[in-house]
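Appendix B. Raw example, untouched.
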Amino acid sequence: MSGVLSPPNWWAALKREWLLYHLGDPAFRFMFEPPPDNEWVSLDCETTGLNVRSDEIISIGAVRIVGNRVMTSERLELLVRPERGVSAESVKIHRLRERDVAQGLAPEEAMKQLMHFIGSRPLVGYYLEFDVAMLHKVVWPMLGQGLPQEKIEVSGMYYDYKFNQLSAYQRQEQTQIDLRFSTMMQDLDLPLREAHDAVNDAVMAALAFVKLRHLKESA
């Protein structure tokens, strides 16, 4: 019957309306619109540590993907001012000193800029779950909920690609698949940029995403 939604579409529409009803700031309704066709945003965050509860975001990098192109000219790079400073141990990793981020954006302002950059596009990233958890610490008080966009994990795409290459014997033996970022980039014959820089990491994840989509489509 014309106009009747199928069960999956009906459920998605109902969920969208429920989320919109509970949205804390209606200015961000645009994130719930249908995403632009064949577009994504690759995302990475640098933080003061790996503890979601106690550590903070200090930089955010994001780049748009359109079709098979990584739009490096359409990127977002933000420094975020932490409340509790930056430890010497974390500086060794991301090379951002306390004085480097002292003039950064307040976390809420950084989230506003990021959400406007993302729009309704699906998010792409390498171990994206951690980055999203860190973002949600700031986003939840602002919106009353987390980011609604679809999340696509690049390491999961790479795992599926490598698993499909295994023989029946290798699968039976539960052969381990190396999911380290450098291994993945080398195996996909992609350039490695300097790591632990939010924009560089976002661009590399975007390149891996595009390559893995191409490999899947051409398989």
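End of appendix B.
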